[in-house]
User: Fold this.
Amino acid sequence: MAMAPDVLFNLRNNFYLGAYQAAINNSDIPNLSEDDAIERDCLVYRSYIALGSYQLVINEVDSSAATPLQAVKLLALYLFSPDNKESAISSIKEWLGDAAIGNNPILRLIAGTIFMHEQDYNEALKYTNAGGTMELYALNVHIFLKMNRSDYAEKQLRVMQQIDEDHTLTQLATAWLNLAVGGSKIQEAYLIFQDFSEKYQMTSLILNGKAVCCMHMGNFDEAESFLLEALNKDAKDRETLANLVVCCLHLGKPSARFLSQLKLSDPEHMLVKRGLTAEENFDRAMQTVG
Assistant:
């Protein structure tokens, strides 16, 4: 019996690769089942969150919405204002402790995302480590790499490869791990991002991936051109701005304007907190890349 087509494939793919506006624009998919409609709405609202439209999500998701949508609203509240952080964390812990909804994969994913923002990686893993969806496995890879545990990240990646080696998230996770391992693996990571750029719409995420690979290989001029292209797509993207600061420091070009923009976009960013201003800080800056 032929498998039913995956009606949300393109929407998911756009979201995973950072084509958030395209995900929103192409989300009007007819005849969805109730579960697919909820997943579609979650992806659309998470795309709005990625674009910084927190208030829209907070306003549109009401108290009668399904648990996954409530979880996405909590993420919007958490990111919208520092004043909301405590109550958002308290709510998500309460929901995770509720036997009826606590194992919901989107709720666990959002919990992992919030605790990763808090840099409380062990707390994040409490809810994500069991996996169960490709997004949860990919988040685990991300968390383990943040903890400098590439050995654990590799185990999670193997699980993803067994499920679907060609999945966009498997390919992305492979690139992240290759960047962390370094050496000859950097070129392999670059080829993954290059493959994405040939198959799909070019996004800031793909351009930043290529740029970080170039920086690790010492090709800073090429990295700068990718990052300026990414900046044209989204002038407020924190990854682009942070990578441009690092790139300019190495090229001996002024980076103060990008650092100022980064302060506005993400006052909590590591580069902002460290107050990187001089080229001798380049090695420290490189540690924040990837």
In short: The chain has a mean pLDDT of 92. The first helix runs from residue 9 to 16. The chain has three domains: 1-130, 134-189, 202-290.
